[in-house]
Amino acid sequence: MKKRIYEPPLRLILTGKCNGNCNFCHLEGNTSSEDMPIDMVYQCIDSADKLSISRVALTGGEPTLRTDLKDIINYIQGKQKISVSLTTNGYNLEKLSKDISKPIDNLNLSMSSLNEKLAEKYQNVIPKIALNYLSHFRALKKTINIVITKENYLEIEAFIKVCKEMDFSLDIMFEKCNDEEYRDIQKKILNELVSSFAGEIILQSTPVLKFKLSENSVIRIKHPYLSKLLHNSICEECRQYNQCFEKVCAVRVHPDGVVTPCLMREICFSGRTMHSKIEDAYNKLYTMVLCNDIYCC
After folding, report:
1. 280 Cβ partners below 8 Å, 6+ apart?
2. Chain centre to alpha carbon of residue 144
3. Predicted confidence (pLDDT) at residue 198 exceeds the cutoff of 90
């Protein structure tokens, strides 16, 4: 495989099952409730190693529902040049913490609210307990992810306070919609952050507005309007281009074996083997960069 300038992570959707019911979750574009077969998981990791893909991200559904998650993490950590990240709502995080042999590179905790009743409505995880698990989990970098809705937008200040105190980063995502009230909420939050922190726009696969929170933590914002700052030809092939602002933030492997850089599953690769599909996906993205279709940072 050719040397790449821009390299999104290989994101493995380990399961479509989830203990939560977040109506704002994009589900990684996955429509199945099945688990990814363990032999497929190992094939993907081996391919990442052979193709010098430096980042593997584990997600779902809720990946901690898998009883073999510790084995998957240990297998990735056995590859010297691959970093591993995990996105979870905190379910079973305490048990996993006891099972893994050494710290993972990145842990991303998805939270719907710090309010116990609202969190229970969506994720069935008590916020204080999830934060405690995150605090004690062995990971080099820790991030809280939150999707801003009309139910939780007043909690932004509280989330920032938590991240400052615990030295976590904060990723904020806004939904795309035509609701005038929700758009006003977005503008208010963005204006307050811009006036409180020194920010910069990072033009990467999915553009983000980035604010420095502390020496080791940042606030990153994904917003539908930021995605319009980039042009990339691969997304023009997608019929749902205007509905997506994830762009090519990862090459996703679904439990059914579909390999795609597209959240909408509009662009898929159909090689004979898992290795060839992953290689074709990354070569496609590499060509996109050579054509100056996307900025790198």
Report:
1. 259, 269, 271
2. 11
3. no
Phi, psi for residue 220 in degrees, rounded to 5: -120, 135
Per-residue pLDDT of 148-197, as tens digits, reads 999 999 999 999 999 999 999 999 998 777 789 988 999 899 899 989 98
Distance of CA 249 to the CA centre of its chain: 8
Determine how β-strand 104-110 pairs with β-strand 10-13: unpaired
pLDDT bracket for residue 287 (50, 70, 90): low
Peptide bond into 271 cis (omega under 30): no
Q: Which residue has the tokens 């605090």?
A: 135
Residue 266 in this model has a pLDDT that exceeds 70: yes
Distance CA 90, CA 37 (A): 23
**Pure H helices in 16-68:** 38-50
Structure tokens at 280: 């074709």
Q: Residue 240: how many CB atoms within 10 A of its CB?
A: 12
Angle at 238 between CA 267 and CA 227, to 5 degrees: 110
Q: Please give the Cα distance from 246 to 147 (Å, whole number).
A: 13
H-assigned helices in the chain: 38-50, 69-77, 93-99, 116-122, 127-136, 156-166, 180-196, 233-236, 274-290
pLDDT tier at 283, thresholds 50, 70, 90: confident
Residue 191 carries which side chain, given as an amino acid letter?
A: N
| Sequence letter at residue 153 | Y
Cα–Cα distance, 119 to 233 (Å, whole number): 39
Residue 243: predicted pLDDT: 64
- pLDDT for 295 equals 42
Q: At what angle do helices 274-290 and 38-50 cross, to 10 degrees?
A: 40
